[in-house]
Amino acid sequence: MINLIPPALILIAGSLILPLLKGRTKQIYMIVLPLLTVLYLFNLSEGVYWKVNVLDYELIFGKVDKLSLAFGYIFAIITFISSIYSLHVKDNLHLVSAFVYAGSAQGAIFAGDFVTLFIFWQIMAFAAAFLVFSARTKAAFSAGMRYIMIHLFGGLLLYGGIKIHYHEIGSLLFNHMELNGLGSWLIFLGFGTTAAFPLLHGWLPDAYPESTETGTVFLSTFTTNAAVYVFSRGFAGTEFLIYIGVIMVVFPTFYGIIENNLRRVLSYSIIAQLGFMIIGIAIGTQLSLNGTIAYAFCQTLYMALLFMAMGAVLYRTGKINATDLGGLYKSMPITTILCIVGAASISGVPFTNGFVSKLMIVSAVADSGMLFVWIALLFASVGVFIYSGIKIPFFAFFSYDSGIRTKEAPKHMLIAMGLASFLCIVIGVLPGLIYSILPYPVDYEPYTAAHIIDQAHLLAFSALAFTLLVLSGIYPPEIRSINLDVDWFYRKEAAIFMKFAKFFAKIEYNIIGEAYEFMVIKPVLKMARWLKIIDTSGVDGTYNGMAKGSMTLSDTVKIIQTGKAHDYAFFMVIGIIMLILIILIPIVI
């Protein structure tokens, strides 16, 4: 059993050494550091570790159980794969941000109390924003600032909720909660901001596509999955989540189909994947929660794989819009194959990890008798298959020939994508690997004839529908466009706020400023000049006069100081006579 330090510390502290290294040494270190985290976690036993007393509170940096370990495993594995994918990156801001981001995500899922969770939650938000900034474009800077704004808002909700919750129950331990008070509601909404709840989701498709080809791979992994973790631990079985989850699986379909930027398409796909997991959490049965954790594990792999494939395309061509791509299978055949593996996994094709995880949630919904939720999942499955499983590889690598001829992705990128593809298939073929790490005992068989036939029908008819829609011209054409989403509102609000701010600044400068100068500054300056005259002529003159008088008196007294005893006796006698005269004259008169 190894439990010397929190896993978060390995990556966060280890990242500080990165700027000191160069060349091959740096690349080896980038592989060794996350690999060390993987080995450390797979040797970590369940229990409560790393307690620290601060003031009157006990902070718990290690609540290790099957739930946190499952997320810890996949976070460590994907950090290792993403680090290999990023070996060409020399930007220290990017690398340090990525490792701090991954480390803080580990810190959040092992946090045993709200204070520790909040600390890592905020580190995670800022590290992610710096990953967006690292693209060093104007669009990335703006998107990163909006990302910080939204997550600070979520952080404030979380902070307020934690304080109220503490006063309500007198404990900071992070355990299961009921939505029965203001504190739990604020915590719920704070987590919901990070989980991209409807109307709070705009930051995700806004920020993720603006990062670098490698930054988006990291971003697609940690923030939203950490949100799935906290909901699994804190709000499992909360019925209200079902309605939120249904909206989340349905609405991204429309954006995914019309969106031209392929990384933004995948960003909407993340929201749909979150919807599946939110529904699984809401149902709250052992099957649905196992399905949620398995889904989180598997979707982390295939979403990262798809983002890596699109990142490789962006890295080689500098383009990511569907209208600019096509025919790349000729130049990037291996990337094409690996992307298809990711597309098959996200679509739930049998013998991929998407099949063995998604079916658990769908089966849990069917068992609960929620027909409308089951129909929503069916609709979402078709949608995800069309806009992620077909659209992504079709428009990037096939479709019409864009004429772009480029090199295959670099070797380290191919190795990273190959590892993710390998895990997608191995877990799909041997689902016991993922079932063995789930929180509850698994009594579920994905490979039944009914499951395979149902899924085959779903995929076949979805593919047929896509083909017919494209051939008939009904499927929305890929065009250069800006699709309005909820982020439009806070972008506009910010712009309106800035206009008002400039307007009031102008008023303040031109009118209030002039009035202030006339009514306040000028009278004060005039008064200051008078006070200066009084000070120099009156006060200073008085002090100077007294000083001169004192000097004159001193000169007189100095004459009297002869140092001879008879002189002093003479002056004493004179003084006594004068004193007697002063006393007697009024009596005589």
Automatic annotation (TrEMBL):
GO terms for molecular function: oxidoreductase activity. InterPro entries: ComplexI-like_HydComp, ND/Mrp_TM. It is a multi-pass membrane protein. The chain crosses the membrane at residues 6-21, 28-50, 70-88, 118-135, 147-166, 186-204, 240-258, 265-287, 293-315, 327-351, 371-400, 412-438, 458-475, 568-588. It comes from the Bacteria. Residues 111-382 form the NADH:quinone oxidoreductase/Mrp antiporter transmembrane domain. Its main location: membrane. One of its GO terms (cellular component) is plasma membrane. Keywords: Cell membrane, Membrane, Oxidoreductase, Transmembrane, Transmembrane helix. Pfam families: Proton_antipo_M. The keyword Cell membrane applies. It is found in: Cell membrane; Membrane. NCBIfam families: PRK12668.1. This is Na(+)/H(+) antiporter subunit D. It comes from Thermodesulfovibrio obliviosus.
